[in-house]
Amino acid sequence: MEIKGKVWKYGNDVDTDVIIPARYLNTSDPKKLAEHCMEDIDDTFAANVEQGDIIVAEDNFGCGSSREHAPISIKAAGVSAVIANSFARIFFRNAINIGLPILECPEAVVGIDKGDEVEIDVDSGVIKNITKGTEFQAEPFPAFMQEIIDAGGLVNYVKAKAN
Amino acid sequence: MGMTMVEKILAAHAGKDKVRPGELVNAKLDLVLGNDVTTPVAVKEFKKIGIENVFDKERIAIVPDHFVPNKDINSAEQVKMIREFAEEKEIKNFFELGEMGIEHCLLPEKGLVVPGDIVIGADSHTCTYGALGALATGIGSTDMAAGMATGEAWFKVPETIKFVYKGELQKWVSGKDLILYTIGDIGVDGALYKAMEFTGPVIENLSMDNRFTMSNMAIEAGGKCGLIEADEITLEYVKGRAQREWTVYKSDEDAEYSQVIEYDVTNIEPQVAFPHLPENTRGISEVGDIKIDQSVIGSCTNGRIEDLRVAAEILKGKKKAKHVRLIIFPGTQEIYKQAMKEGLIEIFIDAGAAVSTPTCGPCLGGHMGILAKGERSIATTNRNFVGRMGHPESEVYLSNPAVAAASAIAGKIVSPEEVL
Ligand code: SF4
């Protein structure tokens, strides 16, 4: 899968409460959630994010709550992938389960700035910074997780196994 | 080479003799949990799987606790949807308002989690049950859906960090302070992907309620789970409640840990975590002059009977400061009733507190205690992220119940010593 988009950049410990504040959790409608995505850390995000854009952040992205609403709102906002130094465990799992591509690549985080145009080949983990003409290699997923991703998420994976 | 408690529990549930950190295993689940925020998404995903029945009607627990009593029409719709799902699938452990409590106080109390279990819950503080010697961990709604359908989940066997607590606990220092101190030391990603094991003579003498508080906040260090070996104190709590047989797993002497961290608790004073991360901890003597608008005592971290007793000890015969709103919410109906019997509720009301029915309420900025712009709350909850209790420009300081009660009286963050 090939992804291309403009980058939104954030720092360490971006938590699920700023990704989607609890005051909006009385719905599970992805479109409504997307309207408030990242609101408490960046109130320009939801209005300006474009289909295909990429989030780049530092350590421990998605820490805090187990709310799947967090990766759902990011995906529904149009974001095509998240690159970070590391992800919080539950967010990592949720992103894989719902089919939001995430990549761990500290070199890319250093080498990409806000607004850069970036292209990702999810299967090979190659990240290209088109603006700066640089290239990075992210850690590939373990085979088992790649199977879930290839199936299009956990639900499809379980469904295929059940039938 | 021996195994840690977590490795043994995973091996037993995966039908293996041995597992090693890093290995991916498929394990049988003893319980699958969801709440009113996460279950609606799980129900939608469950329907997509296309399996008619849940794997076991007795081994799913659904607890509407976040926005109950329903705070608005949307919340009411969410609870209605999961109630109907529970009825249709004949899920035994659906806890209706009036019979419920905050999920992580409720499940152990009802004996739904026992030592040696594997529990997944679509709520990050599912790690609370580690205090019972169970492997309990937070997952998302899709994992909950798959768990309800298959009774299994995949796990990466985590490395374990062993924490050893030695020395003498000082007055007003509790499990909350030990875990805040630990998070302050290792950071909010200090145990990322890892299991935490809390051990040592201090833990061996710690009450069950204080142990729950510690395991509850393992996630605040990024941990997958936070376990305490089941001992006599655990079994005392479990007996008479347990709805199933249990198994006590102990880490082997020669088990391999990624790290062993020792603390002498003698010098630890009550801790306060400053905004906006639980790792921003300071001893109470270093806090300085922080005026507060609100004090919140409760939540799955500190809403148990011992927490209320400590708060009452300090509030007895005193009044909260005029400008402070003091909100106290017991964790479950049983805890609420016990607090009534012991006269604690009267002490709280006389001190000027608003005592609420069990709910998550203000802990996640849901309802019943939201902060306005620029306001500050001290809270016995577990997170002080930006906007956690209301306006993005409000602030939450985390502490134990004694400090939160004392601060309500003083109108600023103080040590209990200062109001007694
Ligand atoms: S009390 Fe707070 S931390 Fe605990 S389950 Fe409820 S919202 Fe989550």
Automatic annotation (TrEMBL), chain A:
GO biological process: L-leucine biosynthetic process
Domain Aconitase A/isopropylmalate dehydratase small subunit swivel: start-end pairs: 39-104
Job description of the protein: Catalyzes the isomerization between 2-isopropylmalate and 3-isopropylmalate, via the formation of 2-isopropylmaleate.
Pathway named in the protein's UniProt entry: Amino-acid biosynthesis; L-leucine biosynthesis; L-leucine from 3-methyl-2-oxobutanoate: step 2/4
Top EC category: lyase
Protein's name according to its UniProt entry: 3-isopropylmalate dehydratase small subunit
Subunit architecture: Heterodimer of LeuC and LeuD.
Encoding gene (name): leuD
EC numbers for this chain: 4.2.1.33
Family listed: Belongs to the LeuD family. LeuD type 2 subfamily.
Annotated catalysed reactions: (2R,3S)-3-isopropylmalate = (2S)-2-isopropylmalate
MF-aspect GO terms: 3-isopropylmalate dehydratase activity
Record's keyword terms, sorted: Amino-acid biosynthesis, Branched-chain amino acid biosynthesis, Leucine biosynthesis, Lyase
Automatic annotation (TrEMBL), chain B:
Pfam families in UniProt: Aconitase
Gene Ontology BP annotations: L-leucine biosynthetic process
Protein's pathway: Amino-acid biosynthesis; L-leucine biosynthesis; L-leucine from 3-methyl-2-oxobutanoate: step 2/4
UniProt-listed PROSITE patterns: ACONITASE_1 (PS00450), ACONITASE_2 (PS01244)
Domain annotation Aconitase/3-isopropylmalate dehydratase large subunit alpha/beta/alpha: ranges: 7-286, 287-411
Cited InterPro entries: Acnase/IPM_dHydase_lsu_aba_1/3, Acoase/IPM_deHydtase_lsu_aba, Aconitase_4Fe-4S_BS, Aconitase_4Fe-4S_dom, HAcnase/IPMdehydase_lsu_prok, Homoacnase/IPMdehydase_lsu, IPM_dehydratase_rel_enz, IPMI_cat
Coiled-coil spans in chain: none
Chain positions recorded as [4Fe-4S] cluster binding sites: 300, 360, 363
Root EC class: lyase
Signal peptide (UniProt feature, chain positions): none
Record note on cofactor: Binds 1 [4Fe-4S] cluster per subunit.
Reaction it catalyzes: (2R,3S)-3-isopropylmalate = (2S)-2-isopropylmalate
Obligatory cofactor(s): [4Fe-4S] cluster
This enzyme's EC code(s): 4.2.1.33
Keywords per UniProt: 4Fe-4S, Amino-acid biosynthesis, Branched-chain amino acid biosynthesis, Iron, Iron-sulfur, Leucine biosynthesis, Lyase, Metal-binding
Protein role: Catalyzes the isomerization between 2-isopropylmalate and 3-isopropylmalate, via the formation of 2-isopropylmaleate.
Record note on quaternary structure: Heterodimer of LeuC and LeuD.
Name recorded for this polypeptide: 3-isopropylmalate dehydratase large subunit
Organism encoding this protein: Orenia metallireducens
Designated gene of the protein: leuC
